[in-house]
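Review this today:
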Amino acid sequence: MALHKLGQDPDSPEGKSPTVYFDDVTGNYILQGWRVLDPARLAHMDVPEHETVIEFPRRMMQFFPEVNGGGGTHA
């Protein structure tokens, strides 16, 4: 498996998060973001035990190839 870092949040104070990765084996994106822990927000979702919820800023959409003209492949 090879993960390719597509981009990090340009507004991150430490430059560590959030981050968009592309897995070239599965063809899926892996997102690193802020954990959603607010019970009121989580109450509106049906999250299975084996999944988690992260918050991901809109400004990070630029790193998805489908949005930036990359044709759906990793950069």
Q: What stands out?
A: The chain has a mean pLDDT of 87. The first strand starts at residue 3 and ends at 8. The chain has one domain: 3-68.
